[in-house]
Amino acid sequence: MSARTVEHYLRPGTLQLPALPPLSLYVHLPWCLKKCPYCDFNSHEAKGPAPEARYLDALRADLEAALPLVWGRPVISVFIGGGTPSLFSPDSIERLLADIRARLPLVPGCEITLEANPGTFERERFCAFRAAGVTRLSIGVQSFHDDSLRAIGRVHDAAQARAAVEEAASAFDSFNIDLMYALPGQTLELLQADLQAALAFAPPHLSIYHLTLEPNTLFATHPPPLPDEDLAAQMLDLIGERSAAAGLQRYEVSAFARDGHRCRHNLNYWQFGDYLGIGAGAHGKLSFPHRVLRQQRWREPARYMDGALAGQALSQDDEVARAELPFEFMLNALRLREGVPRALFSERTGLPTSAIDAAVLGAQQRGLLIADLHRLQPTERGFDFLSDLQSMFLPARSPSR
Ligand SMILES: C[S@@+](CC[C@H](N)C(=O)[O-])C[C@H]1O[C@@H](n2cnc3c(N)ncnc32)[C@H](O)[C@@H]1O
Ligand code: SF4
Predict the structure, then answer these.
(1) CA 73 – CA 288 distance, rounded (Å)
(2) Which atom of ligand 2 is nearest to the CA of 83?
(3) How far, in Å, from the CA of 54 to the mean position of ligand 1?
């Protein structure tokens, strides 16, 4: 689709946003050594070296075309995700960051995260990523147990996982370890060993995801034997206990951090901030005084590169409907353990708080939400039954005929 002019987005509308939210930048690098059987991210097996130079040209063109939509706005965080961004050479990451800095005003001390996989030449690379300007590394470990790693089709083993985390800990002040739980054949004891191994590195941040079977993955068609719901619930309790004992606070459904190490980039998503997303399949959310926009880039890397280089990176560009905004806001905000300031709803959606009054009252009556003058916060029960709570903010269905 052809890009629209900025006047199109600035035209009058029914929303009244008092101010624009903080802006983040997401950059998607879509290649991996091998596609994991559980993964539904926009990631593609790199059959041979990735076309780094052409992809960087496409990213630069994509960013240039998007600039009028974010003109003059400071960028509070950058996240280079994938795929496996650590497959790109440090020189390429340096060029990417130089291209970004030349076009967008990054705030002083801007958080710049890069996702890295164990087994992608970390010894030479991690220090060089740091020198290129990356401030935070997120390492996709998933497990420190060889059998579990094999069962989920990872290309790395436990020794490589340990080596990668050691290297990250020595090169970066802030880093994250990604783990998954409820893995095929995993017992409480195996999870306990994974947690112990992860916490031994004193990580400033830990993300732990329940393995989900996503449609269109190999695991959806050939599901492995997985722990049942009861065991998965016990696993989550264990994760809570062990991470708290190690000084990590659960501040979001899957995210645990020491003081001062919460991920600013992801926090901005959960607080319904804005993000420009560039790269294959990248999503973006951008606000204007009278509307909120969602964008998506072409998913397939070759299609994306051709499109972006011709000034047509977008495959979708839609306004979020007024009726969808309460749910979209709450879907994110309620993932935060401490919730959000009540005033943030109107600030970010441009809607009056009366748009959620009835649903807030209903959620309070069911004991799922704490709502006073200042905050909206899930109760412990609301946090445990989060999808029930979130769904209370879905737009009312029109009566069927
Ligand atoms: C987009 S992936 C990219 C990270 C990196 N390529 C890797 O795999 O290590 C980010 C994280 O999402 C999590 N993830 C991916 N697929 C998942 C699934 N089906 N269920 C739960 N977590 C998943 C993994 O923990 C992974 O580290
Ligand atoms: S390495 Fe990460 S992004 Fe790539 S296929 Fe595996 S889980 Fe997906």
Answers:
(1) 12
(2) 3
(3) 26
Could you read off the pLDDT of 331-380 as tens digits, one per residue? 999 999 999 999 999 999 999 999 999 999 999 999 999 999 899 999 99
- Give the pair of three-digit tokens for residue 350: 């441009």
Return the best residue to mutate from 26, 39, 87 for the ligand 1 pocket (most ligand atoms within 8 A of CB).
Answer: 39
Give the residue carrying structure tokens 């993000």. Answer: 275
- Which residues contact residue 373 at a Cβ distance below 8 angstroms, ignoring those fewer than 6 apart? 342
Are the C-beta atoms of residues 25 and 276 closer than 8 Å to each other?
yes
Amino acid identity of 330? M
CA 71, CA 105: separation in Å to the nearest integer?
10
Task: Name the residue with the closest Cα to ligand 2, atom 3.
Answer: 83
Which of 29, 31, 35 has most ligand 2 atoms within 8 Å of its beta carbon, as the pocket-test mutant?
35
Centre of ligand 2 to C-alpha 5, Å, is 36
How much is the pLDDT for 399?
Answer: 54
Q: Helices marked H in 246-370 — which ranges?
A: 264-270, 301-309, 325-333, 344-349, 357-365
